[in-house]
Amino acid sequence: MLHEFLSLHRVELIQRCQTKVAKRASPEATADELDHGVPFFLDQLIKTLTMEQTANPMESRKVSGPEGGGKPAHSELGDMAARHGGELMRRGFTVEQVVHDYGDLCQSITDLAFEINEPVNVDEFRTLNRCLDNAIAMAVTEYNYQRDFVLADKQVQALNVQIGFFAHELRNFLNTATLALFAMKDGNLGLTGATGSVLDRSLVCMRTLIDRSLTDVRMTAGMPLRHELFSLADFIGELKLSATLEARVRECALVVSEVDGRLAIDGDRDLLLSAVGNLLQNAFKFTHHGTKVFLNAYAQGDRILIDVEDHGDGLPPGDVEKMFQPFTQCGDDKSGLGLGLSISRRSVEANDGILRVRNKMPSGCIFTIDLPRHTLLAGAGQV
């Protein structure tokens, strides 16, 4: 009888399973993986097989559950398998290893029975498969439940951090703007003085922070793109208007090249405005006082290139890819959330473009947006 065979060779079967576990490469497995898995499952299997030899074989379902799948029924085996699945998830094992644990035992039983020529009848083998099926189903279900719970908790934590950063930065800019306004009112100061410049800077920073956050929300939510064919010259002209004030606040100059009126972009205008705007804000942030930031847009073959060039300290070695990660700031100026470049790359790539960056000599760097080239029809939207 199979239950007698399992009882007699219980220790050897567990050892065989431990050997299989030890051979797994990733994650590094230990005998602890079996604590609430194979030994308990083996005991419940033996108990089930033994009860099926009694006058009330269906009582075994209370131990190992019914067959046929569907909604899992309460059973001793199911409860222990669920516990095992949750344990493996918390220890960092994969869902594949949850399945392997039970597959190891089935293979060990089959191998040992074959080696010592132990017969296993059809009904006993069906019971073994039913127990394995129920145990795997309950273990995987609990594993996925615990994993989803952990992932949801991490997402909430990440969202709280992001909201906290946003609120902190917005409060700082609003506080500075409020103090500047009070100072101007108390001292009857004009808008063109130093205090007015502080107010300008704070308002520009708040606008930038809100624009970036809205774009990030839109990209994260996966909202559909709003494709349209629009003039490159008009696009650059709009950027020039909004960036000129920030250039003045940052005490540098913005130089914008002439753009061929026939060139066009087919994409989501708002996302691309955000992408180039973030690059310009980044350039104003790091370029040296009194220097120039260049905005150039031109065609090269079947591509349209938009360059944003600054006169800062350039890119530190090894920071090129790191700087595109969210909440990453590579320069000495740590103001802002560190989201601008990440949002720019995602916005550009969503429009079938490429964002790259390179150092230039003797100082500074150039960010380039590379997009498919399109042409306007005669008289349509040209500048």
From TrEMBL:
UniProt domain Histidine kinase: residue ranges: 165-375
GO MF term set: phosphorelay sensor kinase activity
Catalytic activity as recorded in UniProt: ATP + protein L-histidine = ADP + protein N-phospho-L-histidine
Keyword Phosphoprotein in record: yes
Gene3D superfamilies: Histidine kinase-like ATPase, C-terminal domain (3.30.565.10)
Positions of region (Disordered): 56-76
EC nos: 2.7.13.3
InterPro entries: HATPase_C_sf, HATPase_dom, His_kinase_dom, Sig_transdc_His_kin-like_C
Keywords: Phosphoprotein
Statement: the UniProt record of this protein carries the keyword Ion transport: no
Name of the protein in its database record: histidine kinase
Species of provenance: Brevifollis gellanilyticus
Lineage: Bacteria, Pseudomonadati, Verrucomicrobiota, Verrucomicrobiia, Verrucomicrobiales
